[in-house]
């Protein structure tokens, strides 16, 4: 077990639905991430939170809305998604070590999302 | 040119074989390098970091060639349990937390 949990593990939703993905890390880390993994494509970083503050937003459409209420929890709110948003959504966490530090990222099991 | 490029494979090798994967990266200022392993329908997990001097962990050896901007992973005496996708990961400069992932190389070890 990596210490990062995600719920739900599978989600099927229509384009007009609103749903949320949840991630929780039990590792005492201070940075959390959302990634998208589509078939045959590399992982794409979506959002980074460092000490609960969003530090990266890689041009993600506004139909994806992250929320980080504390350093242990991360949400991804979904609304009016498109079929091409179907993918595996992975959460990760790491411990920020300061400038130049190598902070290993630990991944949750992911939520497999299907948009109909 | 992709930031991180890997041969997608698949590599199908018999048990006990030695197999090597290469990965190239485009940004010469990249600072840190890793190999992650991802089993089918599972999350990526860190296999090993890659250090400038090269490093070994049991049957796995990682090498970094900064001049040619490539990273390699060598697996000796491969086991059935080594079957997975191996992801080359590079930490980009200028963004403290951002990792760039390759598409992965698929390995199947056959009995």
Give structural notes.
The complex is a heterodimer of chains A (116) and B (111). Chain A has strands spanning 4-7, 10-13, 18-25, 31-37, 44-50, 53-57, 64-70, 73-79, 87-94, 106-107, 111-115. Chain A is mainly β and 116 residues long. In chain A, strand 7 and strand 8 (73-79) form a beta hairpin. Chain A is globular and about 40 Å long. The mean pLDDT of chain A is 89. Chain B is globular and about 45 Å long. In chain B, 32% of the residues are buried. The interface between A and B is medium-sized, with 27 and 24 residues.
* Overall 3D form of chain A: globular
Count of strand segments of chain A: 11
Helix and strand run of chain B = EEEEEEEEEEE
Poorly predicted ranges of chain A (pLDDT <50, ≥5 residues)? none
The largest β sheet of chain A comes out as: 7 strands, mixed
Give the terminus-to-terminus CA distance of chain B: 37 Å
**Number of helices, where a helix is a run of at least 4 consecutive DSSP H or I residues of chain B:** 0
Strand content of chain A: over 45%
**SS-based structural class of chain A?**
mainly beta
SSE inventory with pairings:
The complex is a heterodimer of chains A (116) and B (111).
Chain A: E1 4-7, E2 10-13, E3 18-25, E4 31-37, E5 44-50, E6 53-57, E7 64-70, E8 73-79, E9 87-94, E10 106-107, E11 111-115
Parallel strand pairs in A: 2-11
Antiparallel strand pairs in A: 1-3, 3-8, 4-5, 4-9, 5-6, 7-8, 9-10, 9-11
Chain B: E1 4-6, E2 11-14, E3 19-25, E4 32-38, E5 44-50, E6 55-57, E7 60-65, E8 70-75, E9 84-91, E10 99-101, E11 105-110
